[in-house]
Specification:
162 residues, four-stranded antiparallel sheet
């Protein structure tokens, strides 16, 4: 997988007659050339999320492990017969902090720049919002993210790299 644009502004694209246009150089995220073959491009238009830092918190009680993902219904895409996609959101973290991503590891939105996290999980609060808890071993912080339903899925289709 290769992320071509993340949290990009419109001026980072070429404006086409009926689409935003970008280019791919045939490389992966490690800047290595990929072999010839068929590839597929897809992505998400992420609206204006509202991120609220609730502060230190106790995670909600769970019987076993919290769910690994939450399902979110997206805005209809007028170019796909107004179909409303459903995606699975998860929370990821690395040395730079925590972020929302799709279940197939496409990063969508940076949550916090807290280093050294040891775990994080997500719960669905409503059709429009999710809650995230992150733990750095000394404290647990809770975040609420609303407007998650303001995302739109798009599929650029399949193309061939020669």
């Amino acid at each position: 997988m290769r992320v071509l644009h993340q949290q990009a502004e419109l001026n980072e694209f070429t404006i086409g007659a009926d689409a935003l246009v970008t280019q791919w150089d045939g490389k992966d995220d490690d800047d290595e050339d990929l072999p010839a073959g068929k590839y597929r491009a897809h992505g998400y238009l992420v609206g204006q999320f509202k991120l609220e830092d609730i502060g230190e918190a106790t995670p909600p009680p769970v019987e076993n492990e919290p769910p690994a993902s939450v399902k979110v219904r997206l805005m209809p895409n007028p170019l796909a017969n107004n179909k409303r996609s459903v995606i699975d959101l998860v929370v990821g973290f690395d040395s730079d902090g925590s972020y929302l991503k799709t279940i197939d590891d496409l990063p969508l939105f940076m949550l916090s720049e807290t280093p050294n996290l040891i775990r994080a999980f997500i719960t669905k609060k409503s059709e429009k919002s999710v809650d995230v808890w992150q733990d750095d071993g000394t404290s647990i912080r809770q975040f609420s993210i609303s407007n998650v339903d303001k995302m739109m899925a798009f599929d650029c289709g399949e193309f061939e790299l020669k």
